[in-house]
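step=encode ok
step=design start
structure_in=
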């Protein structure tokens, strides 16, 4: 199935595990993918593997995002870039870390949406945006004051964007994954004292794979989801159903 033929999709965080899996699945289905990341070096592997077009910019800089996206013909966007920050309680959080997490996970995604949506509207073909959030926005997780707050903000960006962009034929949705054992997460979630009790509370009892997150992202981008907008879809093995 090559149902993304003739469609260009921008994927931020393309050098990461979930971002890379999303790029691969989109290319397989015929999309022209723009693989975005902080620098060209980090993108070299996924670009060489898939033939995606690299695009480097700093998610913390509005000027850099605007310069990268203005005039870019894009049909879809996956806001997948993220920063884990710290494990901390509200009373001992480092507010500078909090600010950085918010800056990348919420503010950065909003800025990409801001400038990409303008180009999507200019093209007049409709389109779709998927924001990669987290189960940490849906339930309280110990130590996740910064990360969870940033992803809760992202969920609201999803809903408001769906409301505002719907009249232009642009759908906006989010996915809320559980942990994938990427390098960003393994240092904490891979600890035996953290992993065992967490998985014991999850009905499916295991971590997700990168492809298990990428597949619903691609579905929400596709015409198969043409009447779905404004949702936050848990991909968490049933954890938030408790």
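sequence_out=
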């Amino acid at each position: 199935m090559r149902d993304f033929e003739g469609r260009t999709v921008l994927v931020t965080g393309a050098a990461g595990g979930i971002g890379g899996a999303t790029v691969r699945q989109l290319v397989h289905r015929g999309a022209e993918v723009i693989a975005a990341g902080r620098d060209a070096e980090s993108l070299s592997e996924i670009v060489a593997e898939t033939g995606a077009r690299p695009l480097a910019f700093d998610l913390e800089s509005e000027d850099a995002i605007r310069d990268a996206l203005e005039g870019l013909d894009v049909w879809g966007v996956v806001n997948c870039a993220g920063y884990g920050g710290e494990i901390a309680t509200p009373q001992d959080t480092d507010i500078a870390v909090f600010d950085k997490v918010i800056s990348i996970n919420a503010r950065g995604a909003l800025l990409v949406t801001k400038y990409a949506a303008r180009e999507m509207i200019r093209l007049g073909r409709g389109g779709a945006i998927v924001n990669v959030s987290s189960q940490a926005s849906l339930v309280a997780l110990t130590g996740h004051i910064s990360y969870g707050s940033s992803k809760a903000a992202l969920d609201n960006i999803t809903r408001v964007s769906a409301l505002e962009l719907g009249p232009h034929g642009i759908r906006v949705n989010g996915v809320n994954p559980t942990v994938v054992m990427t390098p960003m997460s393994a240092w904490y979630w891979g600890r035996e004292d953290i992993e065992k009790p967490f998985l014991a509370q999850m009905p499916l009892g295991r971590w997700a794979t990168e492809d298990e997150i990428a597949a619903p992202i691609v579905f929400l981008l596709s015409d198969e989801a043409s009447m779905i907008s404004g949702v936050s879809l848990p991909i968490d093995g049933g954890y938030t159903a408790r």
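step=design ok
step=annotate ok -> The chain has a mean pLDDT of 96.
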